[in-house]
Design brief:
The structure is a homodimer. In chain A, about 45% of the residues lie in helices and about 15% in strands. The first copy, chain A, has twelve helices and twelve strands. Chain A has helices at about 5-10, 15-20, 30-45, 50-55, 75-85, 100-115, 130-135, 160-175, 190-205, 220-235, 245-260, 290-305; strands at about 60-65, 90-95, 120, 140-145, 155-160, 180-185, 215, 240-245, 270, 285-290, 320, 320-325. Chain A is elongated, with a radius of gyration of 26 Å. At the A-B interface, helix 4, helix 5, strand 2 and helix 6 of A face helix 4, helix 5, strand 2 and helix 6 of B. Chain A binds a DNA duplex through helix 2 and helix 4. Chains A, B: GO terms for molecular function: DNA binding.
DNA sequence: ACATTAAATGTAAGCGCTTACATTTATAAC
DNA sequence: GTTATAAATGTAAGCGCTTACATTTAATGT
């Protein structure tokens, strides 16, 4: 691999001049620019961005930490982010934290030591304190799907209380009063919030929240299945089941069918996230829209604006959930 | 951020010694190792891996180029890869090529200039020649889902001809003789192969392949929808539709329903890939399994073995498709 | 006690770039 | 034709590490 030195040699100029034409920075005469360019193509020269990075202290790369690389939720998020950066020729280094504190921390350390200019973090297990401490460091970062009071300007979040509220309210409007709920793991803030919104809607309808109708899942499909099973066997009768995300709803539906329960006639089901496949399952799942791709793009814009000082459309941190009505919830006949 | 210099100062040793304890390489006495470690934690020292990279000419990171970051196909692949590398504390830099020649090429250049020690490439648009040329360079790479004769030992592929064959054979066994086919874009090798397998099965049943029953899609859901529409309006009657992947099958199914066609009673449908949501749609889709996650792990193993000289389980390049029978194909009554 | 050898540590030259500063060359003003 | 000024180019230091080689220190044998 040719180095800048060889190019300068061939072109008959100094290192600095070659560097200048690369970064088409300063004043270089057309003639020399031409010479240098020619030499570069002749040698098939490709700048070594590691070296650039070290010298300039700017890597043109941003770190992206997500919980998982697969699944209908993170895909669109990553994609939104990559697209935004690609347009500005920034590059993304990716890591998965697997909702595990140590792994998340490790990943952050790596991304920082890797000279990322900025970070986009979707972390779940790491403590607020760690992040607040991190914010005092020199690598700027933005948080997706997590709210920390002290860091509020860099938290891109969905109003999950409202989402939980919307889901429950819709089901209540259809006349249901016996509503089971499969939550996410309640140590996660979003799981808490969704449940809080749920309770709020119940309260508005003067309904008490019955703990027996609650099952705590883990946002994965299987826990929807076991959750349904548990509720079916142990809880009082219910005519509707609200799940804190679509994947658990999917699991619950599959299991309900195994119990020969007709959907949606005998049981209404509500999801959350509006993951892409919800409209393909049967019955098509009513759910709450989570504009994750847009939020990913917004996170990228945050970095573009705060780190690279590019002009972007105005930054927005709070996103609104939206009710998506399909066919999995039936009205109770009066 | 503290540098190695400050650590050496604090510990009262030379740069080299600090470097040695970092890479716990050479002979360092326990006493000095202790001193240095203490100094490191005291300063909160974190090695700058950019600098390490430049000096050692090894970045401990591998580049991963996929067509898209989202979708049920790439997610499991990326995940398999990340997991394998994480265990060996290698890191992955990701890029999306979007099936576009220029973007794929750009991405490869970036990954190389970024000093990736090795590359895992899922490319579609770039030419064989380019890749063959690339293989002469110093950055080793492995190809997923693409076969090039000259590079055969580094091509991790599925036997797509066989997959196409299995799908068609199964449908034929159910008594169908009028079978429509929605292919992938035929400039892609895998699309060609699947179709070839399809034709081969037809031939075994002494059936001619009818061009009118073929629609060329692009592997995306929408093209399944328009494909169905086209076939429904222009093609002769058919009792089964085989799609070259699950997403097109999904699109076709949705549209078929809009035409009030009962599935699977009036039309049998067959997919390909066994993407995770196929079992949730209705009717659950019969399809061909594509062990993409395993193939991702294998690609990672290839790099681990060929680049980092780690011992891995034996490398395998050819993977076998498998018929997955669910409920979307019905036997024709005799 | 002294040579011989091995272990521990230090020295300094890069890795391929960027960039402040110095120097040269061209342009303009008189 | 001089200067003054701006534009173009060159020089060299340094980014934070690794590593070949040189040097010092400790361990061993006689």
């Amino acid at each position: 691999m040719a180095t800048i030195y060889e190019v300068s040699k061939l072109a008959g100029v100094s290192l600095a001049t070659v560097s200048r034409v690369m970064n088409n920075n300063a004043n270089v005469s057309d003639a020399t620019r031409e010479k240098v360019t020619r030499a570069m193509t002749e040698l098939g020269y490709r700048p070594n961005s590691i070296a650039q990075s070290l010298a300039s202290n700017c890597s043109n790369s941003v770190g992206l930490l997500v919980s998982e690389l697969q699944g209908p939720f993170y895909g669109p998020m990553m994609s939104g982010i990559e697209t935004a950066f690609r347009k500005q020729s920034k590059h993304v280094i990716i890591a998965a934290g697997h909702s595990d504190e140590e792994r998340e921390q490790q990943a952050i350390e790596f991304l920082i030591s890797r000279n990322c200019d900025g970070l986009i973090l979707h972390v779940e297990a790491i403590s607020d304190d760690y992040l607040i401490e991190l914010s005092k460091g020199k690598t700027p970062f933005v948080l997706i799907n997590r709210y920390i009071e002290e860091l509020s300007s860099r938290c891109i979040i969905l109003d999950n209380v409202k989402g939980g509220y919307l889901a429950a309210k819709y089901v209540l409007e259809q006349g249901h009063t016996d509503i089971a709920y499969i939550s996410g793991p309640l140590w996660k803030k979003d799981a808490q919030d969704r449940l809080a919104g749920h309770k709020q809607a119940l309260a508005e309808y003067n309904l008490n929240f019955n703990e027996q109708l609650l099952y705590q899942g883990d946002f994965m499909e299987d826990s929807g299945a076991t959750g349904f099973q548990h509720l079916h066997n142990n809880a009082p009768q219910f005519t509707a089941l609200i799940c804190a995300n679509d994947e658990m709803a999917t699991g619950a539906m599959a299991t309900a069918r195994e119990y020969k329960i007709k959907l949606p006639e005998q049981l209404s089901i509500m999801g959350y996230d509006n993951v892409f496949f919800t409209r393909h399952i049967s019955p098509p799942l009513s759910t709450i829209n989570y504009p994750i791709s847009a939020m990913g793009r917004m996170a990228a814009d945050w970095v573009l604006s705060n780190v690279y000082h590019k002009n972007t459309s105005p930054l927005q941190t709070l996103f609104e959930p939206e009710l998506i009505i399909r066919q999995s919830v039936l009205a109770i006949p009066q």
